Each structure stands twice: as C-alpha cells, then as structure tokens.
C-alpha cells in the first residue's frame, strides 16, 4: 500500500482523487514465502485473520479495499511472467472500458528458506548469487526481492488530463507453450516463444525494424538464455547490413525478482524511453557459445547506448519478454511518446517534444503551497522541491500545468 502511495506521488494524483474511481488492480506474484512464514508461527502468536491475510488474493484486494478502487481486481500467479501478465490483463480492462485507470505490477518477497531450497533443487539458482544474462559463465539466477507498480490510462485520456507520459504500450499479448518442443514442464519452448512474437507483431502490423532493443527475460541459465536469444534473432532476422538487434536483461542488475520480473523489465524500458538511453547488461564476460549472435546480428548491451536523435520518422520501440516456468509467455511492445500537434500547446506553454516549437510570450505562473511543522523543515522541503524541479526536462515543465496543479494540492497533505 505504501508503494501505491508512492505511485500516486509520481503521477501527481491525490488519494482523494482515486477514492471511488473506476480503477482496476492487477498484481502478479509467485513467492509463497509469506504463507510459509505465517504457517510456521506458533498458534498463540497468530491473529484471527492470520491465515486469510497470508493468502495471495490480498495483494490486489487490499489495495482496492483500502483506497476504494472500484474497477476489476485480480491477484494472479503464472510464475515468473506474473507481473507482465498483470499488465496484459490491465490493458484489456482499459480497452473494454471496464476501467478508466489501471494499476498493475508485481511483488516478490524472500522470507523463507523453502523457496530457495526448491529452486536450488531443480538447478535454477546460481551457486555464487549472480545473474549473468547471456554470458558464457552463466550458471543460474540470483533470487531478488522486488515490488513494482505502474499506472496505465488510455492515451487520449492521459493527454486530456495533462498526465506525464513515460511511454506508450503499443500492444501486449500472452500465450502458453502447451507441450510442444519441451523436454519437461519447466523448460522454455522456442516454438511457444516464436508463436507469441508472430501473433503480437502481426496483430499490430508492426514494422520489426523499429524495434531498437529487446528487454529479454534473460535469467542467466545455460539452457534458457540460448533458446530465447536465438528465437529473438531468428524472428527479427537482422542482416549484417542492418543495425544489430540490441538485447539485455534487468535481471543482471537486480537478480531475478520472479513474480515482479516482468514489471521490472517494463519499468526499465520506460526509463530507457524517458532518458533515451539503455544501461549496460551487468555481470557479462563473453557471449554464451550456444547463442548464434553473428548469424542473427544480435548484440548484448555492454555499455550505455544512447538513442539516435529524434526525427520525423516513427518513434523508437522496445520489445519486452517475460516467461513463466509453467509455460506462460508474455511480450509487450512499448514506444516513445510523441504528443500530437493538438496537444503541443497547453495553458500558455508549448510542449518541448514538438520540433520547432518555441515558448510563447503569454506564460502562465503556478502557485505552490508548502506546509510543515517547523521553519527548518519548510526550508528543506522548498529546497528539495526546487532541486527536483530544476532536474525535470524542459519538455515536461512546458506541458505540466495539470501535473503541477495536482502536486501543489499534494504538498498540503
């Protein structure tokens, strides 16, 4: 619930504004550590609601209950792709107008030794606790704690409301491997992954050359990494005369956050769009020899790579993979946000994203209200807010009238 409040702070929304709204909540999770820990407690230390409170439905249900969010509500578990599957389901509630706002994400908490023991038994964990995505010395993944939430709206609604838009989800789709091309239940399937990629890009009629980078599942396992990388290479089919397909995985930075892994990848992609740069894949020494990088013109990102300059061509796009060991696969396509011409001028300001626009003379000024208990804390709050404001890109400040109005209200809370 605290992370939800942080989400509202970032979006510039108040708790009061969300109260009674048609907001859907979808939370993915995989870990049962909380239940393990609760069940081990002696009966005299358990409250009357200890059992129900340890069940998975609480992740989404408590958010909707506590903040009076009245849209669809789902807690789901499809293993490691749970949080991106939550995004998929959230997007559908916006498309069908079941909700006006969607809050979605995932959580993974490591509290109990049982989950580490079980994952180690099937050879999934790295003995030295490092996730070396696509590296020749990859030996399994490192488990990671994580919690991530995002807020989604229909693009037209977000533009109308003056929201800060990090990126645009062009499409997201999921499927299941079935048992095709699988030696056992937990092994990934190249056939299933290829079917998913084919379906999602065909459905959107998307130009494959626009995909600048793929945020891969990339757990750092000797079996899974080559299957995924070669599948991506074969599908996108970049020739040596074309720019390479860049791939990487946030798991090399954070470890594998399992139920929150997909949302971690999506948040990373959104930050890449926002800062127009891709950070390096950590823990990488040399390419796994089973990955046919030369054949498919694949390149693992090993240093920070900046986006090419913005032009009048289509915005840059990123693909995101997330796979569950039970066979669930999810792929999302996100692209840079570029405001339409009708949204390039708002409340006396021009939007800095629009090429060739200049600030017009009739500026609008904003009043910010600060309230603290002491003079010192008031000075500190004003100084911190000023630092934050100075760091914001001009393109954001120019078109953030609605955002600033909401922020000034929040400062009084």
From TrEMBL:
<dbReference type="InterPro" id="IPR014031">
    <property type="entry name" value="Ketoacyl_synth_C"/>
</dbReference>
<dbReference type="InterPro" id="IPR020841">
    <property type="entry name" value="PKS_Beta-ketoAc_synthase_dom"/>
</dbReference>
<keyword id="KW-0597">Phosphoprotein</keyword>
<dbReference type="InterPro" id="IPR018201">
    <property type="entry name" value="Ketoacyl_synth_AS"/>
</dbReference>
<keyword id="KW-0808">Transferase</keyword>
<dbReference type="Pfam" id="PF00109">
    <property type="entry name" value="ketoacyl-synt"/>
</dbReference>
<protein>
    <recommendedName>
        <fullName>Ketosynthase family 3 (KS3) domain-containing protein</fullName>
    </recommendedName>
</protein>
<dbReference type="InterPro" id="IPR050091">
    <property type="entry name" value="PKS_NRPS_Biosynth_Enz"/>
</dbReference>
<dbReference type="Pfam" id="PF02801">
    <property type="entry name" value="Ketoacyl-synt_C"/>
</dbReference>
<feature type="domain" description="Ketosynthase family 3 (KS3)">
    <location>
        <begin position="1"/>
        <end position="336"/>
    </location>
</feature>
<keyword id="KW-0596">Phosphopantetheine</keyword>
<dbReference type="InterPro" id="IPR032821">
    <property type="entry name" value="PKS_assoc"/>
</dbReference>
<dbReference type="GO" id="GO:0006633">
    <property type="term" value="P:fatty acid biosynthetic process"/>
</dbReference>
<dbReference type="InterPro" id="IPR016039">
    <property type="entry name" value="Thiolase-like"/>
</dbReference>
<dbReference type="InterPro" id="IPR014030">
    <property type="entry name" value="Ketoacyl_synth_N"/>
</dbReference>
<dbReference type="Pfam" id="PF16197">
    <property type="entry name" value="KAsynt_C_assoc"/>
</dbReference>
<dbReference type="GO" id="GO:0004315">
    <property type="term" value="F:3-oxoacyl-[acyl-carrier-protein] synthase activity"/>
</dbReference>
<dbReference type="GO" id="GO:0004312">
    <property type="term" value="F:fatty acid synthase activity"/>
</dbReference>
């Amino acid at each position: 619930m605290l992370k939800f409040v942080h989400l509202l702070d970032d979006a510039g929304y108040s708790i009061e504004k969300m109260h009674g709204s048609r907001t859907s909540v979808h939370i993915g999770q995989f870990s049962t550590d909380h239940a393990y820990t609760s069940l081990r407690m002696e009966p005299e230390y358990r409250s009357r609601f200890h059992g129900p409170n340890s069940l998975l439905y609480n992740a989404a249900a408590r958010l909707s209950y506590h903040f009076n969010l009245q849209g669809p509500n789902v807690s789901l578990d499809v293993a490691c792709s749970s949080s991106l599957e939550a995004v998929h389901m959230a997007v559908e509630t916006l498309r069908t107008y079941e909700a006006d706002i969607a809050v979605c994400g995932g959580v993974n908490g490591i509290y109990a030794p049982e989950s580490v023991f079980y994952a180690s038994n099937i050879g999934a964990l790295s003995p030295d606790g490092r996730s070396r995505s696509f590296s020749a010395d990859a030996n399994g993944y490192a488990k990671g704690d994580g919690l991530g939430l995002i807020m989604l709206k229909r693009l037209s609604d977000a533009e109308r409301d003056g929201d800060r838009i990090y990126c645009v989800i062009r499409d997201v789709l999921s499927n299941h491997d079935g048992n095709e091309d699988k030696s056992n239940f937990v092994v990934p399937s190249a056939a299933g992954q290829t079917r998913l990629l084919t379906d999602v890009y065909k459905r959107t009629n998307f130009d494959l050359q626009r995909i600048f980078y793929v945020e891969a599942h990339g757990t750092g396992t000797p079996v899974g990494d080559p299957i995924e990388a070669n599948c991506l290479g074969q599908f996108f089919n970049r020739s040596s005369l074309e720019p390479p397909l860049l791939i990487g995985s946030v798991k090399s930075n954070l470890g594998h956050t399992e139920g929150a892994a997909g949302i971690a990848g999506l948040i990373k992609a959104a930050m890449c769009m926002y800062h127009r740069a891709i950070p390096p894949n950590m823990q990488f020494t040399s390419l796994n020899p089973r990955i046919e990088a030369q054949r498919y013109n694949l390149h693992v990102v090993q240093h920070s790579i900046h986006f090419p300059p913005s032009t009048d061509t289509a915005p840059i796009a990123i693909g995101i993979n997330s796979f569950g060991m039970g066979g669930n696969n999810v792929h999302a396509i996100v692209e840079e946000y570029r405001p339409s011409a009708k949204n390039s001028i708002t409340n006396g300001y021009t939007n800095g994203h629009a090429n060739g626009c200049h600030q017009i003379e009739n500026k609008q000024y904003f009043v910010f209200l600060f309230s603290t208990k002491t003079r010192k804390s008031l000075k500190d709050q004003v100084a911190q807010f000023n630092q934050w404001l100075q760091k914001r890109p001009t393109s954001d400040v120019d078109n953030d009238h609605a955002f600033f109005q909401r922020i000034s209200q929040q400062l009084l809370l």
